[in-house]
Write a structure and sequence with these properties.
alpha/beta; six-stranded mixed β-sheet; 23% helix; 2,3-Dihydroxybiphenyl 1,2-Dioxygenase, domain 1; 6 helices
């Protein structure tokens, strides 16, 4: 269901809830063609040359131009927080690192990039005028983020300490899972978050991924939260598609 009002979004995105995703791409126009065809997204310019993706008229993701070609081509998940500076300090204290210190994104909010204690990168988002996804948990929108890690117990302790209420509090419906790095990934693959987008038909979506110049990395395979396949777009950004 679309969350149409800003106040509803703010209420939904309490600290520790995934509230936004973006892809850092070398060619944003190519990204628009790929994801527009795959998910039916439309696009509008946003802050600093970033484009926002819309599904059913609601914002669901952003595509951004990589500032440096040496940076990874990657999807990043952002966790909501009322105070990015304070959360960044708690992340440091818990053994994580701050990659990019909190910085204002116009009037939209404040963003930061951080890592957990094993090096998995994720974002922080302190809302201004932009609270987060206008649509989620549906085909064509964000539905899940899976943390692939070498030590699930340590990850549970790290994120449980930071985001206990979002993960374990009363009424919590976390959009994040933890799983060990396994043989579906190359041995050199570092711990990372994998963004999942909802689809109605996983097999049909994989056919489209191939047609559009992407690649299937793994799957489809069954999980406790649905049928999943891991793919890359035509530029190498990995993501997953999930059929509930």
């Amino acid at each position: 269901m679309a969350e149409n009002s800003t106040s509803a979004r703010e209420a939904a995105y309490t600290e520790g809830v995934p509230c936004w995703v973006d892809a850092q791409l070398a060619d944003v126009e190519a990204g628009k063609r790929f994801y527009g065809d795959l998910f039916g997204w439309s696009f509008q310019p946003s802050y600093g040359g970033t484009v926002w993706a819309y599904h059913e008229g609601e914002p669901v993701a952003a595509l951004a131009q990589k500032a440096d070609g040496r940076l990874p081509t990657v999807w990043t998940v952002y966790f909501a927080t009322p105070d990015a500076e304070a959360l960044a300090g708690r992340i440091r204290a818990a053994g994580g690192q701050v990659v990019t210190a909190p910085v204002p994104v116009g009037e939209l909010g404040v963003a930061a990039l951080v890592t957990d204690a094993e090096g998995a990168v994720f974002g922080l988002w302190q809302p201004g005028t932009h609270a987060g996804f206008g649509l989620r948990h549906e085909p064509g929108a964000f539905v899940w983020a899976e943390l692939y890690t070498r030590d699930t117990a340590a990850a549970n302790a790290f994120y449980g300490g930071l985001f206990h209420e979002a993960l374990f509090g009363p009424g919590a419906e976390p959009d994040v899972g933890r799983a060990p790095l396994t043989d579906i990934f190359p041995a050199e693959m570092p711990p990372h978050f994998l963004v999942h987008f909802g689809v109605e038909d996983c097999e049909a979506t994989l056919t489209e991924v191939n047609r559009l110049g992407g690649r299937i990395q793994a799957g489809p395979f069954d999980t406790s939260y649905g049928t999943v396949a891991v793919v890359t777009d035509g530029q190498g950004a990995s993501f997953a598609v999930l059929q509930r």
